[in-house]
Amino acid sequence: MNPHPRNAIRTTSFNDTGARQSLVLRCFPKGVAMPRTAGLLLCALTLLACPLTAAAQARWVPPRTSDGQPDLQGVWLSNTATPLERPKQLEGKARLSDEEVAEFRRRADRLFKTGNSDFAVGDGVFQAVLTNPDRYTNPNSTHSASDMVDLEFDNRTSLITDPSDGRLPPVTPEGRNRQVAVNAAFQRPASPADVGNALRCVSWGVPRLGGRYGAGDMSYYQIFQSPGFVVLYMEAGHEARIIPLDGRPHLRASVRQWNGDSRGHWDGNTLVVETTNFSDKSYFMGATDRLTVVERFTRVGPDTIEYEITLSDPATWTKPWTAMMPLRQRQETLYEFACHEGNFHIMSGMLVGAQKQP
């Protein structure tokens, strides 16, 4: 018996425990005639489409730029359906089974691919498939689910990896009072500053985590690299973070910026970016200008970057917390995000509408 049929190739790999394993991959139906060269090409394409296991990712070596650094360049999309925080219904359950993930994908297709549901963003997508209503509705949505990008379900039940319960750490009393005041002003805005930076087309913030800017159609990145610098360009808001890698210190403490002041360095194959010097008007999830953000970008496969974010602000949270979301490489082009600073006409409409509320 021929152990290597013409329509198959044998591959050798290692499973997640590190054990050697062999696989005979049949690339087209038995009995179908095909030249050997064409069959091998088809097999190779099939292998490229297969995701890497965790162990294979650990051994994968990223390509290098001309100056020898790991190559992170390209267009990347955050399209994870995993919620920022673990839902109460899944308390104590860090991972879903493969069967549960498959069922959630079926529910998502039913809810969001028919065009009958409202547009869902952020944790709303996962919450919808978890509760599984006949139709998803959102009174704040301005268009239908037909405009959503495909979101990717995996086994994780939260983007937050620390604390281990997948929930945000407690908010300080000072932070809670600040959040309550800001949310109240947003519900009945008296000035443009009350509706937030993004709706005024001023700034979409650092990091892009949670909500529509964290995952979905407004979560495209493009990364550029040159000796001594890396640029993180976000399509939404056309904001470009130009990050030096030469060891220079942060700006002096009196200089504050919407997106803070970023400095980067390489830790092996991981790009580490520390951002400080935020403006007191930046207000990421209620944080103050004491916020420090540490981002870690690690390319773990041909089309995947693990993007880990650690945030600390003692005036807002009782301890630092960390989240991780995958970025997927896309063969797409970024386009202009036309949003005039100030967003005058929309601001006028929102403020007039708020004044008309009883």
Description:
With 358 residues, the protein is α+β, with helices and mostly antiparallel strands. It has 3 domains: 52 residues, no CATH class; 202 residues, Beta Barrel (Lipocalin); 78 residues, no CATH class. It has 7 helices and 12 strands. Strands 3, 4, 5, 6, 7, 8, 9, 10, 11 and 12 form a 10-stranded antiparallel sheet that branches. Strands 1-2 form a two-stranded antiparallel ribbon. A hairpin with a 4-residue loop joins β6 and β7. The radius of gyration is 23 Å and the shape is globular. The N terminus is likely disordered.
Q: Quick summary of this structure?
A:
With 358 residues, this protein is of the alpha+beta class. Helices cover 21% and strands 23% of the residues.
Distinctive features:
single chain; alpha+beta; Lipocalin; 3 domains; two-stranded antiparallel sheet; 12 strands; globular
Helix-strand layout with pairing:
Layout: E1 8-14, E2 20-26, H1 36-49, H2 54-59, E3 74-77, H3 98-112, H4 123-131, E4 160-162, H5 173-187, H6 211-214, E5 220-226, E6 229-234, E7 239-244, E8 261-267, E9 270-276, E10 292-301, E11 304-312, E12 321-330, H7 344-356
Antiparallel strand pairs: 1-2, 3-5, 3-12, 4-12, 5-6, 6-7, 8-9, 9-10, 10-11, 11-12
Helix pairs in contact: 3-4
